[in-house]
Amino acid sequence: MKEIFAGLPWWVKWVAVPVVLIVVFGGLIGSLVGFIVGLLFKILVAVALIAGVIYLVRRFNGSSSSSSKSEW
Description:
Radius of gyration: 27 Å
Largest sheet: none
Strand content: under 5%
Number of strands: 0
Helix content: over 70%
Distance between the termini: 64 Å
Structural class: mainly alpha
Shape: rod-shaped
């Protein structure tokens, strides 16, 4: 790979090649980043909902009934 870039000016290596790669693969990179962000958001929402359900069950189960925890 070094032989290919050996005789080229610096701006080709550090400006033109990255710009070409971003133009060619930009949609793929954007889709991948969007998928990861969406997945992390869904995981966060799921964790928050599960924590809310656990909180509500513990709160109302403890105050409304005087049963032991071994009934589960």
